[in-house]
From TrEMBL:
Residues 35-128 form the MaoC-like domain. It holds the Pfam family MaoC_dehydratas. One of its GO terms (molecular function) is (3R)-hydroxyacyl-[acyl-carrier-protein] dehydratase activity. InterPro entries: HotDog_dom_sf, MaoC-like_dom, UPF0336/Enoyl-CoA_hydratase. Keywords: Lyase. CDD domains: R_hydratase (cd03449). One of its GO terms (cellular component) is mitochondrion. It comes from Thlaspi arvense. SUPFAM superfamilies: Thioesterase/thiol ester dehydrase-isomerase. Signal peptide: none annotated. This is MaoC-like domain-containing protein. GO terms for biological process: fatty acid biosynthetic process.
Length: 168
């Protein structure tokens, strides 16, 4: 899996880097967008407050260790929330239609996660665009292990990608 992650990253991170040199670009099949994030205890607590998911694996290090984990876990759905953020940042007004997820490896508080969203299919329908994306998250500080993957579908108002500001 590490080799697959490195192959995926080496092919697609370069594509996402070239987007930063222009203010907009038309989305094409194969284009990849990325974002990194480190999840904190505060993020986990805020997510639990909204979702009401107070599973002790997220809050009690001893419970997590007894269950076979190295440390407290970040909610998988919190990690997967990076995908709609990436899409809506580049395509304001995008409507998220579906998301499949396979959880492959745990994410612990403090892990740096790289999320990649890659366009795999697109078609026009009634002056909007239906786009399928491959979605993957990697743990950067653990040899780029795939932590979750899946596929998303979104309806985009257009195919012109906005560039996030440097602060994002």
């Amino acid at each position: 899996e590490a080799m697959l992650a490195k192959t995926f990253l080496s092919r697609h991170v370069l594509a996402s880097r070239c987007f930063s040199s222009v203010t907009s670009k038309t989305l094409q099949i194969g284009d990849a967008l990325r974002e990194t994030r480190v999840f904190s205890s505060e993020d986990v607590k805020a997510y639990a407050e909204v979702s009401h998911d107070w599973n002790p694996l997220h809050f009690d290090q001893e419970v997590a260790r007894k269950a076979g984990f190295e440390n407290r876990l970040v909610h998988g759905m919190l990690v997967s929330s990076m995908f709609p953020r990436i899409i809506s940042t580049h395509f304001p007004g995008a409507v998220y239609v579906s998301q499949t997820l396979q959880f492959r490896s745990p994410v612990y508080i403090g892990d740096e996660v790289l999320a990649l969203v890659q366009a795999t299919a697109l078609r026009e329908s009634k002056n909007k665009f239906i786009v399928k994306f491959s979605t993957k998250c990697f743990k950067k500080n653990h040899g780029e292990v795939v932590v979750l993957d899946g596929e998303a579908t979104a309806i985009l108002p257009n195919l012109e990608m906005l560039q996030p500001s440097p602060s994002e």
